[in-house]
Write a structure and sequence with these properties.
The complex is a heterodimer of chains A (73) and B (582).
Chain A: E1 3-6, H1 16-20, E2 26-29, E3 34-37, H2 48-52, E4 58-60
Chain B: E1 4-14, H1 18-28, E2 34-37, H2 46-50, E3 54-55, H3 66-76, H4 83-103, E4 109-110, E5 113-114, E6 116-117, E7 130-132, H5 138-148, E8 152-154, E9 157-165, E10 168-176, E11 182-192, H6 212-220, E12 224-225, H7 238-248, H8 252-260, H9 262-265, H10 283-293, E13 300-302, H11 308-322, H12 332-335, E14 338-340, E15 357-358, E16 372-374, H13 393-415, H14 423-438, H15 445-456, H16 459-462, H17 467-484, H18 493-518, E17 541-548, E18 551-558, H19 571-574
Parallel strand pairs in B: 1-2, 1-11, 2-8, 11-16
Antiparallel strand pairs in B: 3-7, 4-5, 6-7, 9-10, 10-11, 12-15, 12-17, 13-14, 17-18
The chains are: A alpha+beta (73), B alpha+beta (582).
């Protein structure tokens, strides 16, 4: 499922991962001041968030699952 | 929508990659007020940031010979590259390289020398080389430089459509994908540098490329070209690659491209296990799909075909791109043998760098619409013709056209009068842009995107093409554009971006199908099963698409006769590589 988790024990809330995501998948949570995976379905597996994270707090899984095709949606 | 902002500047640049940053910096340096917007974050956006950083720089002082370079590119592009632009990009390249150095971009050195790699080999030592920017570091430098010279940068802005005053483009309307605020950009000149096109195929991380630039320009009345051609490339062993990447820090995009594409394109025979007749310049685009079409799946990359030189190059490439220790890399690619292509492992709809987009009417990157300029992958200079002009061409083309568009737009804006208000037109465009968010019900952008993909991504539509199938797909895509797109509903500002992107991709799908149907021959990356040969001189021509009273209309634009290959030479000499069925 592409981007899977942010390890909040490690995350410093620097926000670099948010800049790195061209697909707007990660957003800053105003309350916790930490990034959250808000739109994982739009992750394109470029891995930039994981690679740019200075404390290795992000894990992106290798699999990208496609949604089941519906009659309308 | 919570607020409406009006940003008034001399120049609006849409897109903040290599081309957009060059355009913004160069026009700002002319003393104009410049606004640069991007749907991502400028400095880490689009294909520029995802690229490996290879730059095709031509410099006679380094011993480069223009004729050799031009001949190689003309052949790769199967003679329908725009030679005027090919030469401009080569001749401007060294100046753009010097710009990058002066802004602080670092290049890759080895043993104290600027390293030059041979992205596409020819039998001419010292020619056709690339130099390489340090991967992932150069893009943020562009942002830094733009801010230093006083460019106003607004990140996370999705532009919906251009605003026109009579026939002149006077800005654009967009919104913040985070706050949902509407932005009305007024400008004397607008530069589109919004990248190329793809269809968000699952197997290739180019989902930022949704034809935004060419779609908004087309809707405003511009001409679009190069839509029947595509980038050749492969993806393989995704999950497996990922695990290796964990250990070695090799990015997926570079690795799979290197495995599957470059060795095949570099002139030493196809890497794919395929009959020699498939060894066309557009080979990697066609051979995999043709294997599938012929019932020979799974498709393998036969690494035993790689020469030692190719292996050394791949090893070097990995080491450079992520500074990995070559001895610690333990890829299958170095163990040789056959490597299975992942199912569906070729991307089908990515546009060629410098080979598709908005048609420029002069060498300043102006378009047919006054006030509108295009640069980078949004600009159909046709530097690449029917096939890619070669590794490193994309980024330097972006730099060269970005700078030219920036200077051209600055010149235009300096002379342009302040436009009078046209509230009616502005309101009309605003209604169109905001419609998905205002709609009470409708289809999700994700679902419509999936429907577009289902009619375009299978190999037998845009890879192994045939009139019957192209027409069938076009019937559905026309329906999508007519019936589904007007019903796309966005549930929040993020979804609003997806809604516009989906609309643009639906238009892109129609463009690709119409151009592919119109070109009744095969050439480069365009393969028609029903017309498997090049048709000289009838198709020594480009296809331009334009809206004529609501109907997408293709027009043939012949290339200048002096650019024709020597037609007295036998076909097999002009085109040593053959298509299936020839």
């Amino acid at each position: 499922m592409s981007i899977e988790r942010i390890d909040y024990d490690l995350c410093t809330g620097c926000g670099i991962c948010i800049e790195s995501c061209t697909q707007d998948v990660i957003r800053m949570d105003e309350q916790s001041k930490k990034p959250v995976i808000k739109y994982p379905e739009d992750c394109m597996l470029c891995l930039y968030c994981e690679r740019d994270c200075p404390v290795n707090a992000i894990y992106v899984s290798p699999e990208k699952t496609a949604p089941i095709l519906l009659s309308w949606g | 929508m919570t607020a409406e902002n009006v940003v008034d500047s001399d120049i609006l640049v849409i897109g903040g990659g290599m081309a957009g940053c060059f355009a913004a910096i160069k026009s700002r340096e002319q003393g104009l007020d410049v606004t640069l917007v991007d749907k991502g974050y400028v400095g880490k956006t689009g294909a520029t940031h995802l690229s490996e950083g290879d730059l095709r720089v031509f410099n006679p002082e380094w011993g480069h010979n223009l004729n050799i370079w031009m001949d190689q590119i003309n052949r790769n592009c199967e003679y329908i590259n725009n030679r005027q632009w090919t030469e401009i990009v080569l001749k401007d390249s060294y100046e753009r390289y010097k710009d990058l150095v002066s802004w602080g971009v670092k290049f890759y050195y080895e043993n104290g020398n600027l390293y030059a790699n041979r992205g596409m080999s020819i039998d001419a030592p010292g020619q056709f080389e690339n130099i390489s920017m340090i991967n992932r570091e150069y893009s943020p430098v562009l942002r830094k430089r733009a801010l230093e010279v006083g460019v106003r940068i607004i990140d996370r802005i999705m532009i919906g459509d251009l605003i026109k005053q009579n026939d002149t483009v006077v800005g654009a309307i967009g919104f913040s994908t985070t706050s949902g605020d509407l932005f009305i950009f007024k400008a004397k000149a607008t530069i589109i540098a919004a990248g190329g096109s793809s269809l968000k195929e699952v197997n290739k991380p180019t989902h930022y490329w949704t034809s935004d630039g060419e779609a908004m320009a087309y809707r405003a009345g511009a001409e679009i070209s190069g839509k029947e051609f595509k980038f050749g490339g492969g993806t393989a062993l995704r999950a497996d690659v990922k695990q290796r990447e964990k250990a070695n820090k090799i990015p997926i995009v570079n690795e799979v491209d290197t495995w599957a594409r470059y060795p095949g394109l570099r002139g030493d025979g196809m890497a794919l296990k395929a009959p020699p007749t498939l060894n066309a310049e557009g080979g990697p685009v066609i051979s995999g799909p043709w294997e599938a079409h012929s019932g020979r799946t799974p498709v393998y990359v036969d690494l035993d075909n790689f020469t030692q030189g190719q292996m050394d190059w791949i090893k070097y490439y990995f080491r450079r791109v992520d500074k990995a220790e070559p001895d610690k890399i333990d890829f299958d690619v170095f163990k040789r043998g056959k490597v299975k292509f992942a199912v569906g492992g070729l991307y089908v709809a990515q546009s060629l760098h410098g080979g598709a987009g908005i048609w420029p009417i002069n060498t300043k990157c102006a378009t047919a619409l006054p006030g509108l300029f295009a640069a980078g992958n949004s600009c159909a200079t046709m530097l690449s013709g029917a096939g890619y002009a070669g590794l490193g061409s994309g980024l330097i083309h972006a730099g060269v056209t970005g700078a030219r568009a920036g200077l051209g737009a600055a010149e235009y804006a300096s002379k342009a009068k302040k436009t009078s208000k046209n509230e009616t037109e502005q309101t009309r465009v605003k209604e169109i842009v905001t419609a998905p968010l205002k709609r009470k019900g409708g289809f999700s952008p994700a679902w419509v995107t999936q429907i577009i993909q289902s009619y375009t991504v299978p190999y037998f539509i845009l890879q192994v093409k045939h009139e019957e199938r192209l027409k069938a797909a076009l019937t559905f895509v026309e329906f999508i554009n007519k019936q589904l797109v007007p019903q796309i509903k966005a549930k929040d500002p993020h979804d609003w971006r997806l809604a516009i992107e989906t609309k643009n991709m639906a238009l892109n799908a129609e463009m690709m199908l119409r151009a592919s149907l119109f070109r009744t021959e095969s050439r480069g990356s365009h393969f028609r099963e029903d017309y498997p040969r090049r048709d000289d001189p009838a198709w020594l021509a480009w296809v331009k698409l334009k809206d004529e009273q609501g109907k997408m209309t293709p027009v043939k634009q012949p290339i200048p006769k002096e650019w024709w290959p020597d037609l007295s030479r036998p076909y097999e000499e002009r085109y040593p590589r053959m298509f299936p069925g020839e």
